């Protein structure tokens, strides 16, 4: 290993092992995939390592106040890294760390600020073709779009009170022009190439095994039962609750569906 590579790894380790700010942490309760009635509402969830939730600033509403990037940290609750900001008024906040953001950088939110990774401003002031993330659907509600590792959307056009945004899914959608967005692509681009390596890693993340329906008894799954290895015994597959699956459309029409200009490619 070269001296340059070794030095780079040391810097990265130092960044990602910074101690979290206690005031920005809260305990993440375990549900085991069960609701208030005690029944399983989401399958394949249970166990996992104890972890704290990091309070992330998705609203980016401290306008005109500059912040210094104090550290880039690991977050066990998401596949992207997070950046700790120290504002000049003394407040500390976490944000999603975009690619190219480094410790020591200065970033700011505002009506019209410099177009550089980490800065946040309304869509109406972002130039066409610029990559963005953490996009608001409702102004003031906080970012909801493009928050996963390696994702980014693009401003493709502006028309009246809407901006046309090319989503990470390649869907083209109208979003209100006063909605805030952050410049840049979310970092940790290699997250999609992560290999689990062993079953234990999934269990640490709280993911329980997925069992095939045909391997169950008929009381546990519509595909269950039969002697030896047998098929599902029906014309189309069904979910554990008995609803048709694999091919049946599940996306409901919502009032916001009229804002979709071009559907995602399937």
Written overview of the protein:
This is Large ribosomal subunit protein uL2. Residues 245-255 have a biased composition (Basic residues). Part of the 50S ribosomal subunit. Forms a bridge to the 30S subunit in the 70S ribosome. InterPro entries: NA-bd_OB-fold, Rib_uL2_dom2, Ribosomal_uL2, Ribosomal_uL2_bac/org-type, Ribosomal_uL2_C, Ribosomal_uL2_dom3, Ribosomal_uL2_RNA-bd_dom, Translation_prot_SH3-like_sf. The chain has 266 residues and is mainly beta. It is 8% helix and 23% strand. It contains two helices and 15 strands. It has helices at residues 3-16, 199-204; strands at 25-27, 52-54, 67-73, 82-87, 92-96, 106-107, 120-122, 131-133, 135-136, 143-145, 153-159, 162-166, 172-176, 180-183, 260-262. The chain has a seven-stranded antiparallel sheet with strand order 7-14-8-11-12-13-15, with no helix packed on it. A four-stranded antiparallel sheet has the order 5-4-3-6, with no helix packed on it. A two-stranded antiparallel ribbon has the order 1-2. The model has no long low-confidence stretch (mean pLDDT 92).
Listing every helix as H and every strand as E from the N terminus to the C terminus, the arrangement reads HEEEEEEEEEEEEEEHE
Count of beta strands: 15
Q: What is the helix fraction of residues, given as a range?
A: under 10%
The average pLDDT is: 92
Distance between the termini: 44 Å
Task: Output the strand order for the largest sheet.
Answer: 7-14-8-11-12-13-15
Major sheet size, sense and barrel closure: 7 strands, antiparallel
The CATH topology assignment of the largest domain is: OB fold (Dihydrolipoamide Acetyltransferase, E2P)
Indicate the CATH architecture of the largest domain: Beta Barrel
Helix/strand class = mainly beta
- The tally of helices reads 2
**What is Rg?**
22 Å
CATH top level class name of the largest domain: Mainly Beta
Percentage of residues in strands: 15-25%
CATH superfamily of the largest domain: Nucleic acid-binding proteins
Which residue ranges are poorly predicted, with pLDDT under 50 across at least 5 consecutive positions? none
Number of domains: 2
What characteristic shape results from the CA principal axes? globular
Domain Large ribosomal subunit protein uL2 RNA-binding: 33-109
Keywords: Ribonucleoprotein, Ribosomal protein, RNA-binding, rRNA-binding
GO cellular component, one term: large ribosomal subunit
Organism: Candidatus Woykebacteria bacterium RBG_16_43_9
């Amino acid at each position: 290993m070269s001296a340059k590579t070794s030095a780079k790894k040391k810097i990265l380790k130092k960044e990602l092992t910074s101690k979290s700010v206690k005031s920005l942490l809260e305990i993440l309760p375990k549900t085991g995939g069960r609701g208030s009635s005690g029944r399983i509402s989401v399958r394949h969830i249970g166990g996992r390592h104890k972890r704290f939730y990091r309070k992330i600033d998705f609203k980016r509403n401290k306008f005109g106040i500059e912040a210094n990037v104090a550290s880039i940290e690991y977050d066990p609750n998401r596949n992207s890294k997070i950046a700790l900001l120290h504002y000049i008024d003394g407040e500390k906040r976490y944000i999603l760390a975009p690619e190219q953001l480094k410790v020591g950088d200065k970033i700011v939110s505002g009506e019209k600020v410099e177009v550089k990774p980490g800065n946040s401003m309304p869509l109406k002031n972002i130039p066409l073709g610029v990559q963005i993330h953490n996009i608001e659907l409702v102004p003031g509600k906080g970012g909801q779009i493009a928050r996963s590792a390696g994702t980014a959307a693009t401003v493709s056009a502006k028309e009246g009170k809407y901006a046309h945004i090319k989503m990470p899914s390649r869907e083209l959608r109208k979003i209100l022009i006063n909605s805030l967005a952050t410049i840049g692509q979310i970092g940790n681009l290699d997250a999609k190439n992560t290999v689990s390596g062993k079953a234990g890693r999934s269990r640490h993340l709280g993911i329980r095994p997925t069992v095939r329906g045909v391997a169950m008894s008929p009381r546990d799954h519509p595909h269950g039962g039969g002697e030896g290895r047998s098929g599902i015994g029906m014309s189309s597959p069904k979910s554990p609750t008995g609803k048709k699956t694999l091919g049946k459309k599940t996306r409901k029409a919502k009032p916001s569906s009229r804002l979709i200009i071009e559907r995602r490619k399937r």
